[in-house]
Amino acid sequence: MSRLLSILTLFCFVLLSLYPFAWMFFSSFKTNKEIYQPSQLLPEKFDAQAYGMLLDGKFVDFTGSLWQSVMIATLQALLATFVSALAGFVLARYSFRLKAFLIGAALLIILIPRQALVVPVFEWFHWLGWTGNSFSLVLCGIASGLGVVFFSQSFRQLPVELMEVSRLEGFSPLRSFLLVIPLFAPSMVTYFLLHFALCWQEHLLALLLLDDSSLTLPLALAKLSDVSHRAPESIGMAAATLSFLPIVFLFALFFRKMRTALSQLSLS
Question: What pTM, to 2 d.p., does this model score?
Answer without folding.
Answer: 0.86
